[in-house]
Amino acid sequence: MRNRFCPQCGLAVEPEFRFCPACGGRLPAPPEEHTEPAAPAPSPSPAPSPSPVPSPSQVPSSAASPSVRAAAARLPRSPRKSRPGLAAPLPADTVLTDQGGRRWRLVRLLDQGGCGLVYEAQSASGTCPQKQSYSLKLDAKDGRIYNEQNFFQRAAKAGTVEKWKKWHSVPLLGIPNCVGFGLHADSYRFLVFSELGRSLQSVLSDGLHLLREKVAFQIAIRVLDCLEYIHENEYVHGDITAENIYLNPADLTQVTLAGYGFAFRYCPGGKHVVRREGSRTPHEGTMEFISLDSHKGTGPSRRSDLESLGYCLLKWLCGILPWSGELDQLKAVVEQKERDPFQSYLEQVMALEYEEKPDYAALRQLFRKPLEKMKASAYDSVDVRVVP
After folding, report:
1. How many CB atoms lie within 10 A of CB 25?
2. pLDDT, tens digit, for every residue of 265-319?
């Protein structure tokens, strides 16, 4: 079969891939679909039109936990760019075998969103403790989970993370530890992580809705640490939202930045990509929080992640953004924007050039100062109640 190459970065890709695993760009249709009309290659299922996340009634009651069903019923998700092949949930007790031959048993569905399904899982083989819990992410084989798998293999190996922590004297770094990956039933792809806990979005959906300043500043610093790490390893995250930030109820010092389905290799081989509007599909990611560059179809850069984090902070503290359609709350949002940490943060981020390296230490200091006045540290247990 003829080789295929990404027209944006030149990487050789497998014939069935729709997105480039290196840069995330959409790939053209395989040549076979056009040159052999008598016996065309199986064409992928068309991407569904944008639609809300399946309702709790569409998820088997035995699969979803009560908090998942309640969250889905109460709080609609921010709209995402539509993607190919939404994965159907698998029943509890399904066993999946990863590429290394290790077996994993699904315990319960914890969360579902625009970028896949997240399960609590346990080892079903003798290589891992049987009672230890893991987080298993499952999605359609040709979905963005392949891009996520590529990110972890290329830029987030456990040894690389540990070296970075020591080099930067960071006590905790919330990069997920990917312990396995594989295919299931020739239609699913999955990743296995050390236990992530619960998404911040699900915690907010439980009735918390807003975060206190102390908690928001703690999470902001921890996310900035993660962004500095992935940026130094040639990637940007591309989808900073509460759905992709996890808190561990068993250890609230753990704040993890997950969800790398939209990760973009902005600096392959140390050379920053050129800013070109329209070079990518516009509006990719969670609409409410993506950067202006992403809206314009420009490859996201480091400033894009920082801009999205700023929008998240405003939403967590105010409950609304100016563009969310709730105009009666606009005054409260403006007042929050004018508060020193946010005004200074957004001013510094929006002043960055496309290829400019941010001053991460200065940005962290904006939130560290008020935490010091509260006699708190970003690396303390996060001061919020999280139920298992």
Report:
1. 17
2. 999 988 998 887 766 766 777 667 777 777 777 878 899 999 899 888 888 887 7
CB of 332 closer than 8 Å to CB of 318: yes
308: which residues sit within 8 A by CB, 6+ positions away? 239, 240, 241, 285, 289, 290, 291
Is 98 one of the annotated active-site residues of the chain?
no
User: 145 pairs with which residues across the strands?
Assistant: none
18 with 85: CB under 8 angstroms? Answer: no
Which domains are assigned to the chain? 59-194 (3.30.200.20), 198-373 (1.10.510.10)
Q: Does pLDDT of 186 surpass 70?
A: yes
Q: Which two tokens stand for residue 363?
A: 């940005």
Can you read off the two tokens belonging to residue 149?
A: 């798998």
> 91 exposed, middle or buried (CB, 10 Å; 0-12, 13-18, 19+)?
exposed
Q: State how far the alpha carbon of 49 is from the alpha carbons of 80, 123, 142, in Å.
A: 11, 37, 17
Q: What is the pLDDT of residues 84-110, one digit of tens each?
A: 556 889 999 999 999 999 999 999 998
DSSP structure string for 1-14: ---EE-TTT--EE-
pLDDT bin (cut points 50, 70, 90) of residue 217 is very high
Exactly one of 239, 251, 293, 305 is catalytic; name it: 239
Q: Is 351 exposed, middle or buried (0-12, 13-18, 19+ CB in 10 A)?
A: exposed
